[in-house]
Amino acid sequence: MGKPNELTKAEWAVIKAVWEQEPCTAPEIQEKLLKQTGWAYSTVRTLMDRMVVKGLLKSEKIRHATLYRSAVSQAQAQRGEALYALKQAFNGALTPMVQCLIDSRNVSAAELVELEALIKAKKKTARS
Amino acid sequence: MGKPNELTKAEWAVIKAVWEQEPCTAPEIQEKLLKQTGWAYSTVRTLMDRMVVKGLLKSEKIRHATLYRSAVSQAQAQRGEALYALKQAFNGALTPMVQCLIDSRNVSAAELVELEALIKAKKKTARS
DNA sequence: TGACTTCCTTTACATTTGTAGATCATACTA
DNA sequence: TAGTATGATCTACAAATGTAAAGGAAGTCA
Question: Distance between alpha carbon B73 and the CA centroid of its chain, in Å?
Fold first, then answer.
């Protein structure tokens, strides 16, 4: 299970669309992304085929048409990205990274409560 | 203040070395990175010059030699990377990202305490 | 069954990134 | 001052990425 290589922006756009509707065809994804990206069909198609080669998507040929599905889950991809940032930028130091996150954004009171709860929960599971 | 574009792995390696010793010369950085990367002088030099063009480093010519310094702080670069992950992978949702981080790693009890404190502190500043 | 519409396949090309050899200018040293 | 070591510049080249046009094949509707 190699690390799901980090995704490029374009790849993120595609795989997000795929997650929303699996399995799917290239024209469907192109349609979905048209507004945000303006990409032509062949652009999307090329991206998707390259992503198959990379192991980010799987494709299956049904007669004439090609069906795609994701080969990495959203959770896997998210984790890959989060851990990449953690490692690269913060040298693996978790606390500074979280600190940075909550300092760099307007965090609502509700979110702070959530975060607190989450950490409490983790403490419980950790200690056992 | 454009977003400090995300850095590539190679760029991270270079800028980290620069932060450790500013100002610095290309040969110094090459030396520093030799062990981890095996890069030749011209490789490092090319990287650094490209980073100047991108606005990641600044360079100054002192006679024959070239002195480099960072043009983005460590904090800025870290923030860029963290926010990129947040936005791209988690669609800006902070809590899930933090959740993911603490689930994907062995977090020590001490770290959990730190995190908790950090959030408490944030709550205080937020409410005012 | 011919025309139209879709989707697929192939090919292409510019830009960015990773990596470095070769050669030129300098400065130090004997 | 000639020779050597050191750093600078230029040029190169392959792989990855972003982006798409052009031309073929297949299914659909009249």
Answer: 8
Q: Which residues of A touch B (CB under 8 A)?
A: 7, 9, 12, 75, 77-86, 88-90, 94-105, 107, 109, 111-112, 114-116, 118-120, 122-123, 126-127
Q: In chain B, how long is the greatest CA-to-CA distance?
A: 55
Buried b / exposed e along B38-62 (16+ C-beta atoms within 10 A): ebeeeebbebbeebeeeebbebeee
Point out the residue nearest to C9 (C-alpha to C1').
A42
Q: What is the model's pLDDT at position A128?
A: 52
pLDDT tens profile A106-128: 899 999 999 999 999 998 886 55
Per the structure, the residue whose CA is closest to nucleotide C19 at C1' is B43
Cα B77 to chain centroid distance, Å, stands at 4
Which residues does chain B have within 8 Å of residue A109's beta carbon, measured at their own beta carbons? 123, 126-127
Q: Which nucleotides of C are covered by protein (CB under 7 A)?
A: 6-12, 17-22, 25-27
**Quick one: DSSP state of residue A7?**
P
- Rounded to an integer, what is the distance from CA A113 to the centroid of its chain? 25
Q: How far is B64 from chain A (nearest CA, A)?
A: 33
What value does the mean pLDDT of chain B take?
Answer: 92
Q: CA–C1' span, A43 to C14, in Å?
A: 15
pLDDT of B124: 87
CB atoms near residue A32 (< 10 Å): 19
- Which tens digits make up the pLDDT trace of B65-120? 899 999 999 999 999 999 999 999 999 999 999 999 999 888 999 999 999 999 99
In the numeric block, which tokens belong to residue A55? Answer: 């192991």
